[in-house]
Amino acid sequence: MTASESGRSSPPTQRVVTVLDLLAAHPQRRYGLSELSRHTGLSKPTCLGIVATLTNAGYLVRDAQDKTYRLGPMLISLGHSAQESLRVNPAAREALRALSHQYDTTAALSAVVDDRITLLEMVAPPGVRPGVQVGQSYPFAPPVGLMFVLWDPAALQAWLARPPTIPLRTDGARLDKVVAQCRASGHLVELLTPAGRRLYALMAGMSSTLPDELRALLGEMISDIGERVYLPEEDSTRGRRHDVGVISAPVFDHHGRQAMVVSLQIGRSLTDTDITRHAKGLMTTAAALSAQLGGRAPVS
């Protein structure tokens, strides 16, 4: 049970989180005590107590000359421990790095953690700054999250039974087609649309309960589960290019259940041949990540 569910919270702890969140959002910057106080809304004495304690523990580093603070080395160890607890093998980053280099695009690994879609690891090409960060999360409810349940029939039905994040019109016949074809091909291709970009930007970090006005806005942007999934058989003009947002493939655990999703963040137009080539490399990586978990694809 979370603090919000139990009605209890810890204001002192929240103040520590506020300081860490600020520094994490700007990892290249160093903040003096006055800046920390101004940006967090906390008093200087409160900030001083927090940063002094975090610095002594190694979670922050203090520059003795300009008296500024930045993230410290103990957070690296903490992050690695968190990834290990979420079954992210250190070798996963190297697998994503190879995938990113092969296709010159961002490769990511994500999973559903505590009923939220969470980005566990990500590697971007040199010079590219993705619009998301490791640890960022999104509500896991229709229409968001289909790729995390596509290859698990029980999980798919449980997800469909969740109260939707936004009002939906669901075409059951097409959804069945999407599920069948994605399971057969081993991957999912999601088309890139302006509405899709706005959807994820708006939902990033939000709770599962959205204000009514925002729900209505999102409902205008996307209203059908799987409507942005690209199915080749629906393309009447073979050979043309398609604006592809994401190509995803499942990672399975030792029970043969879908545990994670590995994705290529495309963000550009591809031909069918390009899509096939990207998907092939992606599925090879997904199989390698499944093997790291001792996983296996489910038997049809």
UniProtKB/TrEMBL annotation:
UniProt-listed GO biological process terms: negative regulation of DNA-templated transcription
Signal peptide extent: none
Keyword Cell cycle (UniProt): no
Name of protein: Transcriptional regulator
Transmembrane as UniProt keyword: no
Domain HTH iclR-type: 10-73
UniProt-listed InterPro entries: GAF-like_dom_sf (IPR029016), HTH_MetabolicPath_Reg (IPR050707), Tscrpt_reg_IclR_C (IPR014757), Tscrpt_reg_IclR_N (IPR005471), WH-like_DNA-bd_sf (IPR036388), WH_DNA-bd_sf (IPR036390)
Organism: Mycolicibacterium tokaiense
Gene3D superfamilies: 3.30.450.40, Winged helix-like DNA-binding domain superfamily/Winged helix DNA-binding domain
Pfam family, any one: HTH_IclR
Source lineage: Bacteria, Bacillati, Actinomycetota, Actinomycetes, Mycobacteriales
Record gene name: kdgR_3
SUPFAM superfamilies from the UniProt entry: GAF domain-like, Winged helix' DNA-binding domain
